[in-house]
Structures are given as C-alpha cells and as structure tokens.
Amino acid sequence: MTTIPGRLRRLDVPAEVLTETQELLREAGTEGLESTVLWLGRLVTSAVAEVLVVVRPRQVAYRTHEGVGVEVPEDALFELIAALPDGIVVLARVHTHPGTAYHSEVDDTNMLIAHDGAISIVVPDFARARIDLERCSVNELRHGEGWVELDAGAVRERLRVR
Question: Are 103 and 142 in contact (CB under 8 A)?
Fold first, then answer.
C-alpha cells in the first residue's frame, strides 16, 4: 500500500529531474498551453523524501477567452495512483503558467494532490527557461489555511537540488 507523505521538511530533487521537468512542460508551452507533471519518489525518513522520477499524466490543456488551463481527468489520476509501486508516492505537482508564476484560484481548487503538506510548484513563462525554483511559485497545502506560498528562504531549505 502506498503511503501518503505528511508535511515534509525537505525534498531532495536531482538536477536531471528539473531538466526533464522543464523539457516535458515546455512542449505544450511552445503552443501557448499549460502543462502539468508529477514528481514521484520515496520517503527517506518521515521528514525527508527523494524525488526519483517525473511523470506527465494524461491531461487536457485548453485555451478560452479567459486564458489557458490544464486538467488531469479523474480517471487518469486514479490509474496513475493505482499503478504506483509500493513505497513510491506523489511528492509534488509542477505546472506552468504564461508570464508570472503564481498559484491561481483555479490551481487552488484543481488539485491533483490534497494531503496536508502537499507541494504545488508553478513555473513561469511556460517553462521556456531553465527551471530555477526560486523564480517559481512554490506552495504548500496547509489544512485549515489553504495553499501558502513559501518564501525564497523556505524554498531553498525545503527543496534541495543536487
């Protein structure tokens, strides 16, 4: 059975995961569309996790007169979760926005992960440039408070790129 991670003190992120994340997200961005990926990994301790792989779930990107968006159909998320090997968990959601990175109202309600301490990262400019986590909007879900954006110091402390 897959464990749901609690509020983690640190996520160890290999540099190659950031590179692959950018490549996957940028594909849709070249067409002016948002995209989303999930970081999967394992718990090293109850407070530390290691990202092992980036996965792009089946998704629907759209453009309307109000802007752009991306959604992962419920059945696609269910299939992904059901296929996780024992010990592998969803550690973070990473997606793009045009222009500035911020956690929108749609992002607040269109959650792929909803456990206390979940991490949602928004990458600016459709991931056209190399991902710098301090330029992203990194948010933690705190039950009772909602999504809280982490400041640059907390991002450096909580997400360790190696």
Answer: no
Quote helix, strand, coil % in the chain, to nearest 5. Answer: 25, 35, 40
Q: Residue 74 to residues 14, 59, 83, 86, 98: CA-CA distances in angstroms? A: 29, 10, 14, 21, 24
- C-alpha–C-alpha distance, residues 39 and 86, integer Å: 16
Q: Which residues pair with 120 in a beta bridge?
A: 93, 139
Give the closest residue to 69 by CA, choosing from 38, 48, 94, 98: 98
pLDDT digits (tens, 9 = 90+) for 34-55: 999 999 999 999 999 999 999 9
The model carries a pTM of 0.94
Beta bridge partners of 53: 40
